[in-house]
Amino acid sequence: MIVLGIETSCDETAAAVVTDGRVVLADLVLSQDAEHRRFGGIVPEIAARAHLDHLDGLVARALATAGVSAAELDGIAATGGPGLIGGVIVGVMTAKAVAAVHGRPFIAVNHLEGHALTARLTDGVDFPYLLLLVSGGHTQLLVVEGVGRYRRLGTTLDDAAGEAFDKVAKMLDLGFPGGPAIERLAATGNASRFTLPRPMKGRPGCHFSFSGLKTAVRQALAEAPPSDPRVAADLAAAFQAAVSDVIEDRTRNAIAAFRALHPHGSALVIAGGVAANRPMRGRLSRLAAATGMTLFAPPPKLCTDNAAMIAWAGIERLKLGLVDTLDFAPRPRWPLDPSAPPAGLKP
Length: 347
Ligand code: KG4
Ligand code: ZN
What we know:
There is one protein chain. By secondary structure, the chain is an alpha/beta fold. The protein contains 11 helices and 10 strands. The protein has helices spanning about 35, 45-65, 85-100, 110-125, 160-170, 180-185, 210-225, 230-260, 280-290, 300-305, 310-320; strands spanning about 1-5, 10-20, 25-30, 75-80, 105-110, 130-135, 140-145, 150-155, 265-270, 295. Helix 6 (about 180-185) crosses helix 8 (about 230-260). The longest helix is centred in the C-terminal third of the chain and has 31 residues, at about 230-260. It binds 5'-O-[(R)-(carboxyoxy)(hydroxy)phosphoryl]adenosine and zinc ion.
């Protein structure tokens, strides 16, 4: 089985070709960082136009790299949501066109399911597993019980973890995207110089909150001596340590909740752009070891947005006969666990 995947839900235009033998034949990602950098964040209209300009050429290149023709595809999968709707429409329309021309099935993939199933592509992890999904748009702990079968244990009450990285990076003038820049600078900083809060740490449950931490960073920056060249690195280190503390604490609770549901489950999977953060991976790997879990962390390239994960989720759905019709409507919102109660202030 060979599937083409298309990802356009945020600021990466991506196309990939993957086989059901877990082989990635092509995995191309065009970042729009340069287009958005001067705005310090993603501008949805610019993103949609850039996807439109680049996607056709990228799909052709992905097929050429994989050495397959469109007629040889068993299915065409595209992110159908959630995400910036202009971009999602571009990806879905392109996938539908290829599917219609070649008479192949079209599969609308939930972007979060793409992240969630990546560890099955890279490591063949069996269901059930515990998933920590930490990206620019989402921060969730989920029990993954099967394709399309998710139980949400926790989510963020305000900002996503990656969003907090991006906002703090902006305050420190580190550019966009912020995560990798903070990680680089933090490596040279002294995390103990600033005392920052750890929102939600020590509380029951698995919910997250990052907006208070962001405000604390802003305050510490305002009070720090402006001429001290060490401030940015020390604050970056203190911020990264605080986020890691919170994520470790929430994940520890989630492991207990996961074990209560699945006493024999032992896999902890991380996904999403923030999961590319090396100190965070180190923390989670120690937590996994201490709690008898095995950590699966896809390579950073497959943690950040990509189309291989969309093609793979397409394969998983295709195998189960879960295909979509050409009247599928792109979805700006699409929760993985629609039955989860909204995250209130009291988790
Ligand atoms: O999964 P992703 O590529 O896109 C979304 O679906 O959101 O995640 C992007 C987010 C951005 O907020 C970026 O700053 C963050 O992931 N990120 C990182 C790192 N690399 C990317 N955060 C912390 N450390 C990193 N090394
Ligand atoms: Zn993502």
